[in-house]
Design a protein that fits this description.
The protein has about 450 residues and is α/β, with parallel strands linked by helices. The chain folds into 3 domains: about 170 residues, FAD/NAD(P)-binding domain; about 90 residues, no CATH class; about 110 residues, Polyamine Oxidase, Chain A, domain 2 (Alpha-Beta Complex). About 30% of the residues lie in helices and about 25% in strands. The chain contains 12 helices and 20 strands. The strands form 5 sheets. It has a 7-stranded mixed β-sheet with strand order 8-7-16-17-18-15-19, with helices on both faces. It has a 5-stranded parallel β-sheet with strand order 10-2-1-14-20. β7 and β8 form a beta hairpin. α1 runs parallel beside α8 and α1 packs parallel to α12. The two termini are about 25 Å apart.
Length: about 450
């Protein structure tokens, strides 16, 4: 591999999530000197990992779809293709005290909480949205309005409404139909052989943390610098151009740069760059986020045969139950069953303030509703993870609010999940965005022709 020569142009990258790492990797391949700074103790961002039973696993559940071609290509490029496995998903809905399979058209026909006519409408709406290619037609209408109009009030009340409220809280009624279209379109497109086939999901054995590790190794091999526990305090701007990163910590310093890519949430970027023009800063402030909260349980017994269980009962205080070991065999985790109790919450939610014991006391009685045999004695261990800025709130006409990757400050670029619309949050799209913004910065620097900081 060709190393980045010291005398070449330097690109500073703020944030060591997968978008920042993908940008660093592609820039090093193009011969730039890269200096990436991550505020946290490890790389990976929301793809952080830990161990259960000797096996490595994500703090927040992860899988990929067959349509996630960017991450699949990168896994292949990095020599990890033999670690990527594909399995049929097992999806279900918990409603009115009962678990319903929700994978095949036959499962839909058996979903008795809605009438036969509503079941047919639900299936036809899914087929219709799968065939729609133009998402812009859905930007001006909310998901709630569209679903009620075309799928019916009962389907909204029983199936989609509780999930929208669980994910977006008080903003559920404002969510754009374009966001909902992307979710349905993606899920049907991931079914090999068409909508009558089961969904195929992919997982990187040894966790997606392996992808983060190998990306980091390759960047260092090409001469890039990756530093953790190095929070950036400020983007230094002189004469309308970003020229350096002011770094905190015991070795406080300025890192001179020819270009800077910020792979951080909008609110963090605003704090680092107070000199942004107001029109651009207003776009950044205009997008609100939900936080992610995951209680992870290592269990002696399985809660259900379902991998991904949507909870369509809002009296239950979590959105989904994802039993990872119904997707990846529990032998990889010391024989334990692994379950995520997942939530997306407003930053002010009291659940985000709870410690793990208090949250378990709140959640565990509801696990008994899902599986009446459940006992707290099943729990061998538990962990609690909070993810700030995990889900942008996608309102109508969202495309008007997306901040441009090339900011009004020369040499300064932004890459975060608010910009991947109409697709939803996910590793694939973050990696794709990181690569795209890296190409944009590289093209601008190559046109400029000379290094600034030298």
């Amino acid at each position: 591999m060709k190393a980045c020569p010291e005398a070449q142009r330097r690109v500073g990258i703020i944030g060591g999530g997968v978008a920042g790492l993908a940008a660093a990797y592609r820039l090093c391949q193009r011969g730039f000197q890269v200096h990436l700074l991550e505020a946290g103790p490890t790389l990976g961002g929301l793809v952080g990992t830990f161990e259960i039973g000797g096996g490595r696993i994500e703090q927040f559940y992860h899988h990929i779809f067959s349509t996630d071609t960017t991450i699949a290509a990168l896994i292949q490029e990095l020599g990890l293709a033999d670690r990527l496995v594909w399995h049929e998903s097992k999806v279900g809905i918990f409603y009115d005290g009962r678990i319903y399979d929700f994978v095949t058209p036959l499962d839909l026909l058996r979903f008795t909480p809605i009438s036969l006519i509503d079941r047919l409408r639900l299936g036809l709406v899914g087929l219709y949205l799968r065939r729609q290619k133009e998402w812009r037609r859905y930007e001006s209408i909310t998901a709630r309005e569209w679903i009620i109009k075309y799928a019916g009030r009962r389907n909204y009340d029983v199936v989609w409404g509780p999930l929208l409220r669980g994910k977006f809280g008080q903003r559920a009624d404002d969510i754009s139909m374009a966001w909902f279209w992307s979710k349905i379109h993606l899920r049907f497109a991931s079914r090999k052989g068409g909508p009558l086939q089961k969904e195929q999901l992919g997982y990187l054995m040894s966790s997606f943390g392996l992808l983060v590790d190998v990306l980091g190794e390759r960047i260092r091999q090409m001469g890039g610098t990756l530093e953790t526990s190095r929070p950036v305090q400020r983007v230094v701007v002189e004469n309308g151009r970003a020229v350096a990163l002011e770094v905190g910590g015991p070795k406080g310093q300025k890192v001179p740069c020819d270009a800077i890519i910020a792979a951080v949430p909008n609110q963090v970027f605003l704090r680092l760059t107070p000199s942004l023009p107001e029109a651009y800063a207003a776009k950044l402030r205009g997008v609100q986020y939900q936080w992610a909260l995951c209680l992870v349980l290592a269990l002696k017994r399985s809660l259900s045969p379902i991998y991904w269980m949507n909870i369509s009962d809002r009296s239950i205080p979590f959105l989904a139950l994802i039993e990872h070991t119904n997707f990846i065999d529990r032998s990889h985790y010391g024989g334990l069953h692994v379950a995520y109790l997942s939530n997306y919450l407003d930053e002010a939610s009291p659940l985000l303030q709870m410690e793990i014991d208090e949250l378990c006391r709140l959640y565990f009685p509801h696990l008994g509703r899902i599986n009446p045999a459940f006992s707290p004695e099943w729990v061998a261990d538990r962990w609690l993870f909070r993810g700030p800025y995990a889900q942008p709130i996608i309102a109508t006409h969202y495309s008007d609010a997306i901040p441009e990757p090339r900011t009004p400050i020369e040499g300064l670029y932004l890459a975060n999940m608010t910009q991947i619309y109409p697709e939803d949050r996910g590793q694939n799209y973050s990696i794709r965005l990181g690569e795209q913004v890296a190409a944009l910065a590289a093209s601008d620097l190559e046109r400029a022709g000379t290094a600034v900081y030298h």
